[in-house]
Amino acid sequence: MARTPVAEHEGRVRALLAPLRTRGAETVPVSAALGRVLAASVASPIALPPFRNSQMDGFAVRSSDIVPGVSLPIAGEIAAAAGTPAPLVAGTAVRIMTGAPLPEGADAVVPVEDTVTSEGSTVTIASAWSHGSYVREVGSDLAAGAELLPGGVRLASRHLAALAAAGLTEVVVESRVRVAVISTGSELVAPGDLLGPGQISDSNGTALVAAARDVAAEIVFEGRVVDDRAAFEALLEAALAADAELVLTSGGISQGEYEVVREALEPRGALVDVLAMQPGGPQAIASFQGIPVICFPGNPVSSQLSFLLFVEPVLREIAGLPDRIRVTRVLDAPVTSVAGKRQFLRGLALPDGKVATLGGASSHLVAALAAADVLLDIPEDTTELPAGATVETWEL
Amino acid sequence: MARTPVAEHEGRVRALLAPLRTRGAETVPVSAALGRVLAASVASPIALPPFRNSQMDGFAVRSSDIVPGVSLPIAGEIAAAAGTPAPLVAGTAVRIMTGAPLPEGADAVVPVEDTVTSEGSTVTIASAWSHGSYVREVGSDLAAGAELLPGGVRLASRHLAALAAAGLTEVVVESRVRVAVISTGSELVAPGDLLGPGQISDSNGTALVAAARDVAAEIVFEGRVVDDRAAFEALLEAALAADAELVLTSGGISQGEYEVVREALEPRGALVDVLAMQPGGPQAIASFQGIPVICFPGNPVSSQLSFLLFVEPVLREIAGLPDRIRVTRVLDAPVTSVAGKRQFLRGLALPDGKVATLGGASSHLVAALAAADVLLDIPEDTTELPAGATVETWEL
Lengths: 396, 396
Known about the structure:
Two copies of one chain form a homodimer.
Chain A: H1 6-16, E1 25-29, E2 42-43, E3 53-54, E4 58-61, E5 71-78, E6 93-96, E7 108-111, E8 115-118, E9 122-125, E10 135-136, E11 147-149, H2 157-165, E12 170-174, E13 178-184, E14 188-189, E15 200-201, H3 204-214, E16 218-225, H4 229-241, E17 246-250, H5 260-265, E18 271-274, E19 277-278, E20 282-288, E21 291-296, H6 300-319, E22 326-331, E23 335-336, E24 342-349, E25 354-357, H7 366-371, E26 374-378, E27 384-385, E28 390-395
Parallel strand pairs in A: 5-6, 13-16, 13-17, 14-15, 17-21, 19-24, 22-25
Antiparallel strand pairs in A: 1-12, 2-11, 3-10, 4-6, 4-7, 5-9, 8-9, 18-20, 20-21, 22-28, 23-27, 24-25, 24-26, 26-28
Helix pairs in contact in A: 1-6, 3-6
């Protein structure tokens, strides 16, 4: 059987999820906008700074009054929050604090370090100071109406600070992708429930929910179902009722019997395939009432890696998050791989910059995956690599 | 005046915040544990996998019965969730699904691809299969009682999956650092409030709250206060009543008058200093009723950079987050800097790998900081750098 290359399935998932890129926007408070993606450019309603102010603690003066060594009477003091100060009388100086508004008539600030005051009433200025020295002009950071932030930016603290400085309290951001996660398999029980013979705790639900959240998706529905087609279909309906716009399933898509996801979705046009990869060969994509359904195999390692390969890159792009980092590393020991399958081995990045494999290739090794910090990406046509060979790795 | 090097103040803050490293732990549901740091090693209460099961869809057999071309009667079928299957009768094969429990007596699984079945009652096996083939032994991933996850790990989706697989629903994680943020300055109004003459929107509160959250701190108190010592002290009391274990303040620590943070904290032993850096020269650290208070200057760019330099590295370390990335880049154009001050200029990483400065050096340029994606770190003793010189940059 000719297996489909991983890249081809990546393209299918990307195409199916393309409509998710042009979704709605929502308005959120700036205080809740950290990490969200700005839906459109934001203009500043005010100039920044909004008034002409001092960059230093010192004296506001007319620069034309200043020659080195000049002494001027101190005509008063302007603190921050001084309201509108009285105009500067020519030939005088006014004590001024950083951030305080410059009086009409002043065009320079002399830093306190350049001055000596006598009896608090006269200031002697050591140097010459030119027009505009230590003055923050209105709009010198940004003009009123100019673009404060471009659309598409992922909001970090410095962006929220700029919004606050402009007096903005709400911001329009891209909606998060609303995801439903459904685990299938009669052998599954909820974590924490007592295991009967032949039963295992469902880890796929926990893994996919957390992995989707980690790339900024919103989980609107979580479900777990036995291998019963009607029950599975009822969960799909419930996911859609919860307004999911992407459904992720695990299990039920291989060539065995009791493959509930295939049974339900193949009659609706699902594409069920076996990829040239290990773990995670069986994969499917479908639409259910117009909503994309991405179907992963049920083995825990397979479903986790499938999400990482096929869905995570799309969600990262939508969320404005960078791609997962890939690093070329040197193998610590020889590695063998299966011909005709792109293999993703679990590994540890070593302090010496090399990489070692961890656990085996089998798709049930969920503890070994947890202990790994990289994936080794062994190409489809490679069957063995000696120690010292370079290998592409994905950071976990 | 001799200014204190940045590194010396870094050391002071780190020393003051050292007690935060040995804080309490709390128990949270696994579903809420993404990104938290495990307080101690977790052992698996069960073996993984908990029972011997099949790695493939195929036939469970006794390996000693198998020679290439052998035909065996099919004695039944074992699905996933089959409970305890009947023992395998020697000389027969049982159809088995991936993940289903192996029957007593079977020691190998023959993949369906290696078989031909006649009339559903006999299977012919093409190859020889040895003991243990495609069998997942009990504990082959992890023995019962063995370490599932080490303490100190920052919980990603694969770790939560391992906890779920082991049947665990709660986990003990390090408490998040409880932070209070207080903005001081009579010129400040809440973002969104109408600006009177000489007033500006407080962006420091928004910035510090978001920046602290971004490195996993919990914000337990936010306040804003005019330049009034009693009012500021009342906010400190309120922050402590909210159980803050770290207080961040902005404003009120320079050499001018109306320096409310200095006035309140110097009598309590605050260390108030001026650093050899720009922006952000004035800095202070204090303790208030045993709780560390880190005091930043009030200029918006200064306070944001001060957090990034002095507090963020400590919070990242506590949260198990990696350090902020620093990259050596090549200057696009000449840069001048002030002698005796380590300067942090805002910059843009260019597509050609070079870096350009953005906006000026002044500490009020909050929009320019928002537009920047790197900081250029110009050493204290450098006054000019030509185009093409290398410079250390911090990723924003």
